[in-house]
Amino acid sequence: MKTRKDMRQKKNTSKAACRPDKTEIDLSHAYRLLYPMHTVLVSCCGKTGGPNIITLSWVMPTSIKPPLVAISVAPNRHSHALIKESREFVVNIPTFSLLKDTLFCGTVSGKDHDKFKETGLTSLASRMVKAPFIMECIAHLECKLCGEFNTGDHTLFIGEIIAAYANKGAFGTVYDTRIAPILLELGGNKFAIPDRRVIKFQ
């Protein structure tokens, strides 16, 4: 039996759908209305075995004090088990020059592929965590896992940033987009880079 709330929601939806300047979006693609999203390479490793890389765009800061960042990872991904086991990870920021490597790391599994070896990306020892950082990326955030939440078909891992560093000249308090053409995912393996103009409002 439909409730009044259900009827109101249906009525409001019908009104929006009837407008000639609006079109219905399939709910399975509705999340892409929030795109483009900043694309990152997360490096991680378990207590045994080699390191892995996972490409993610569901990444966001959640706190300044303490500095926290959240990454969303599906449980069937190889990196999911590694992060739960080691309780740490590194968020690496790629640029347009790493587009092919970024796509590769997001389309094959670390269970079957050595992504560092196959891409030629360089694994270097991090400052504070066991997981390595990726030298070719322009910025890096080393994180210790401090919380996790199940959110539907993904796990939200919350990491406390315990070290952060970037290529000289690429970042002051914001990115210099002339030097750092960061990758933005549009969805469906489509990417863009931001306009290199910077507009500052007083």
Q: What is the structure about, briefly put?
A:
With 202 residues, the chain is α+β, with helices and mostly antiparallel strands. It is built from four helices and twelve strands, in the order αβββββαβααββββββ.
Give a structural overview:
- Helix content is 19%, strand content 33%.
- It contains four helices and twelve strands.
- The chain is globular.
- The strands form three sheets. The chain has a seven-stranded antiparallel sheet.
- A hairpin with a 7-residue loop joins strand 2 and strand 3.
- The protein is α+β, with helices and mostly antiparallel strands and 202 residues long.
- The protein has one domain: Electron Transport, Fmn-binding Protein, Chain A (Pnp Oxidase, Chain A, Roll), CATH 2.30.110.
- The longest helix is centred in the first third of the chain and has 15 residues, at 4-18.
What is the total domain count? 1
Strand order across the largest sheet: 3-2-6-9-10-5-4
Globular, elongated, flat, extended or rod-shaped: what is the shape? Answer: globular
CATH-assigned homologous superfamily: Electron Transport, Fmn-binding Protein, Chain A
Intertermini distance: 55 Å
Largest sheet: 7 strands, antiparallel
Fraction in beta strands: 25-35%
| CATH A-level architecture | Roll
Number-wise, the strands total 12
Tell me the CATH topology.
Pnp Oxidase, Chain A
Mean of residue pLDDT values: 91
**Sequence stretches where pLDDT stays below 50 over 5 or more residues:** none
Structural class from helices and strands?
Answer: alpha+beta
Number of helices: 4
Q: What percent of the residues sit in helical stretches (DSSP H or I)?
A: 10-25%
Oligomer: single chain
CATH C-level label: Mainly Beta
Order of helices and strands: HEEEEEHEHHEEEEEE
Radius of gyration: 20 Å
